[in-house]
Amino acid sequence: MKYKTNQRILQITESTLVVGADIAKKTHIARAMDLRGVELGKSCTFENTRHGLLSLLHWLNTLKDLHDKSNVLFGLEPTGHYWMPLAQFLRKHGIQSRSGQSSSREEE
Fold this sequence. Notes:
Elements: H1 2-10, E1 16-22, E2 27-33, E3 44-47, H2 50-66, E4 71-76, H3 84-92, E5 96-99
Parallel strand pairs: 1-4, 4-5
Antiparallel strand pairs: 1-2, 2-3
């Protein structure tokens, strides 16, 4: 268990944009930070629609460019089934996502 936790921690480097999202039925809110937990930019509020997900992608790419980050690690709270379109969208765009539901869950 400890080995797996350490492996996950080591995925976060200086070049990682760490993002967390609060998931709701219609509207999600995401925040981004660096390796040390320093918040980068303003939060992103986006709808659980294609247009909303594309605006999230634009926000992520803008922050990556502004802060010289090359990859994203996206943590999300799997509320009901509302997180599924977001997880699928992230996967489709090559963005790693992790569920915060339990330590035994793998990449969503």
